[in-house]
Amino acid sequence: MAAQIYSGEKYASRRREISANLAKRPEFHDSKPLPFMTREEKILESSRKLTLISKHMNEIIDPSDKRELYHLNCEVLGIEGNPMALHGDMFIPALTAQASDEQQEKWLSRALRREIIGTYAQTELGHGTNLRKLETIATYDVDTQEFVLHTPQITALKWWPGNLGKSSNYAVVVALMIIKGKNYGPQTFMVPLRDEKTHQPLKGITIGDIGPKLAYNIVDNGFLGFDHYRIPRTNLLMRHTRVEPDGTFVKPPHAKINYSAMVHVRSYMITGQAIMLAYALTIATRYSSVRRQGQIDTTQPEVKVLEYQTQQHRLFPSIARAYAFVFAGAETVRLYERVLQEVETGNVSLMADLHALTSGLKSVVTHQTAQGIEQARMACGGHGYSQASYISEIFGVAVGGCTYEGENLVMLQQLARYLVKSAGLVQAGQSSKLGPLVAYLGAKSDSTSLIDRTPTPGFAEYVKTFQHIARKQTLKAAQKLFGFMEKGDTREVAWNKSTVELNRASRLHTRLYIVEAFVRRVEEVADPRLKEVLTDLLRLHVNYELLDVAAYALEDGFLSSSQLDYIREQLYFYLAKIRPNAVSLVDSWEFSDRELRSVLGRRDGNVYENLFAWAKASPLNKTDVLPSVDKYLKPLMESARASKL
Ligand SMILES: CCCCCCCC/C=C\CCCCCCCCC/C=C/C(=O)SCCNC(=O)CCNC(=O)[C@H](O)C(C)(C)COP(=O)(O)OP(=O)(O)OC[C@H]1O[C@@H](n2cnc3c(N)ncnc32)[C@H](O)[C@@H]1OP(=O)(O)O
Ligand SMILES: Cc1cc2nc3c(=O)[nH]c(=O)nc-3n(C[C@H](O)[C@H](O)[C@H](O)COP(=O)(O)OP(=O)(O)OC[C@H]3O[C@@H](n4cnc5c(N)ncnc54)[C@H](O)[C@@H]3O)c2cc1C
């Protein structure tokens, strides 16, 4: 099963080898539980481990394999980030996709060798979503052939970029490019921030950390201001866009090619989110098979809480989602790598499809992941609320994905633009022009679903029902938009009056894609034992998801209430059928205890003695009487007692 999850036996067994190798290297382990460290201690500890990784990486992984490096990071550094997180996640991808060969020679090679540390500085205090209104300006000075970076007001301060505050000495900075008074929109520049020897900020640069956040606190998200700060013309990233010495602007082959670092993260983060959801579910499912409370049969001992139907309903649909997301994530990465290669040859035709797909997936997957992690926390009762479970940290890191790389409701609108165009083609009788991701929009619906109307309903009937729902909502929402426009609203106003419905269409389209990705994968499985378990999980998935969106199919009679009852019964049937495999389904992700960092999620199930040991190790328990008691509480009680006398 691990080979299914990790798209092949080769990587699944490499993960095992890497974990086994690290088990023998205590210097790579956390020196104490992360929840007991201050932010400063965590950053120091993470930097220590980062240095070790740099030194010994070649003994443990093949550093050219992204997946191996990712696993090494998960084991050693964990999810709370590290001082070079953005260096790998965005700085290197931005240089790879946007720097010319000559620029790559100069900077990418140094970045890969870790001679310099970089980040991606785009968001500002006043603007994150609306990139066209960023306020940092890069004005071209033809005389000196330099760009002058400037922060004209407080809202133009770069704000949020990861590792900008304290760790990075370079950044890929996004600024509005002005040449001879003309605004050429957001462009990307390579900008030195700190002296390479002293690490002191360079003259003209104001820089620092933005303070503690909900989670992800090992990362020093930062602020940055420029005071007429000059960089050479050749620091504009010029793989696709160019500015000649005389200020002539040479257009890229696609207007949004500069957005590639964002598309890179959106493509990879689907897998990252699936893994974080699987972390939380591994913890909650294992704990639920250790925790005994209450009875189902009063003549029998207390049961494991995993026997309760409510607990199964809380956890198992999310287990199915984690599998669905990792399968969809693998497809997304394949498409991303293909588009990256095609863009190199000047073919930008798939950029719009990739953008639409990743915008939708990023939004639906992060939202459902956060919901699933929060349910996993509640499934652990009181102990879920303790940081010993580590689920609160997993939640905090994962939920950040709803905001970064494009706020979810904004990114759903990006997919909606694509869907509306496609709906326009359908309306114009040009369905043959629809791309493969939206071809279903042009198909004719059956009048009713055949779920429960055939002897053994296959997945095709479910897929058709999801297609019917997504098609109906897309065409309806587009019609709403066109209707407002026909009545005289501008497109923008009409769009704003239709966005809730448009975003619903985007979600339904994306949920259909996720179901289809799951079906595609299960169809490929050859081993009959694996196929059976995955088919059960997929059946749980389609019934749970359909029930969640059934209103759309009930309102036009595509599904009847008796079919809905059938779907419910199927759901309950598969909850019970999956129960014996539940722990194996989470164990199949093969997370080591080191990687999970959870007392509740321990593989050996020895939860209670380890919770007690963990509590005893709390810094508060170093002394029996705290200074706060000596200083305040004792005098308070003493004076209360004295006044009573
Ligand atoms: C199996 C195991 C394998 C393991 C493998 C490894 C797994 C790794 C796992 C995890 C790795 C990931 C770890 C994640 C780490 C996270 C770190 C956090 C870092 C966070 C960073 C950031 O947040 S950076 C800042 C991000 N900011 C944003 O996203 C801003 C959002 N805003 C925008 O993107 C744009 O402003 C917006 C697209 C909303 C609008 O742009 P605008 O220019 O105004 O365009 P618009 O008029 O709306 O549209 C015009 C036209 O352009 C099309 N378009 C827009 N963007 C793109 C694009 N990127 N590509 C292609 N086309 C695009 C748009 O659709 C329009 O088209 P038409 O409709 O006109 O045709
Ligand atoms: C953990 C984390 C890490 C980050 N790392 C980086 C980084 O490394 N580099 C970097 O540059 N940035 C980074 N960011 C910033 C991040 O990319 C932005 O915060 C994000 O893109 C959202 O933009 P915003 O903050 O401007 O939100 P806003 O746009 O202000 O969103 C506020 C509300 O307005 C709504 N809204 C905004 N525009 C529209 C619209 N057109 N239609 C309808 N509703 C709208 C949103 O849906 C939301 O409800 C990070 C953020 C976080 C949380």
Concise description?
By secondary structure, the chain is an alpha+beta fold. Helix content is 54%, strand content 9%. The strands form 3 sheets. Strands 1, 2, 3, 5, 6 and 9 form a 6-stranded mixed sheet that branches.
Give an overview in words.
With 645 residues, the protein is an alpha+beta fold. It has three domains: 2-82, Acyl-CoA dehydrogenase/oxidase, N-terminal domain (Butyryl-Coa Dehydrogenase, subunit A, domain 1, Orthogonal Bundle), CATH 1.10.540; 118-252, Butyryl-CoA Dehydrogenase, subunit A, domain 2 (Beta Barrel); 261-431 and 459-585, Butyryl-CoA Dehydrogenase, subunit A, domain 3. The protein has helices spanning 2-5, 9-23, 39-60, 66-76, 85-98, 101-112, 260-288, 309-344, 351-379, 381-385, 391-399, 408-427, 459-486, 491-524, 528-548, 550-554, 561-578, 582-587, 593-596, 607-616, 627-644, and strands at residues 118-121, 137-141, 146-150, 158-159, 170-179, 182-192, 205-209, 222-226, 229-232, 242-243, 249-250. Helix 13 runs antiparallel to helix 14. 44% of the residues are buried. The model has no long low-confidence stretch (mean pLDDT 97). Bound molecules: ligand LGJENVYW and flavin-adenine dinucleotide (FAD). Residues 6-7, 66-67, 70, 89, 120, 122-123, 128-132, 162, 256, 259, 262-263, 265, 268-269, 271-272, 351-352, 355, 404-406, 410, 414, 417 line the site of ligand LGJENVYW. Flavin-adenine dinucleotide binds next to strand 1 and helix 12.
